[in-house]
Design goal:
Blueprint lengths: L8 H5 L3 H24 L3 H8 L5 H5 L8 H10 L14
Helix pairs in contact: 2-5
Amino acid sequence: MKRRRFASVWDAIEPSRATAANMKARAEMMIAIRESVAAWGITQATAAKRLGLTPRMNDLLRGRINKFSLDALINLATRAGLSVRVEVVKTAA
C-alpha cells in the first residue's frame, strides 16, 4: 500500500478540497473563539450570554464542529472581540 501525506487531517478525511478547506476554517475559528473565551476568566453561562450562544455554548467548547456553520462562527468570533480575515490564494497544481 502506498503512503500518502496530507497537509492536514481534513485533507485526509474529507471527500473534496472544498469541504476540507471549509472544515479547516471552521476548526481554526472554533479554536480561536475557545481560547478567547478561556482568557475572559468567566463562567460558561456568562460567556454564553456574552456571545449570545445559550444553549449551545457546550457544543462550542467541546469542539462539536458540525453544529456550527462558517457564518455562525464568524459572527461568534466577532462577538468574542476577534477580527476575522479571509485569505484566498492560488494553490499549487
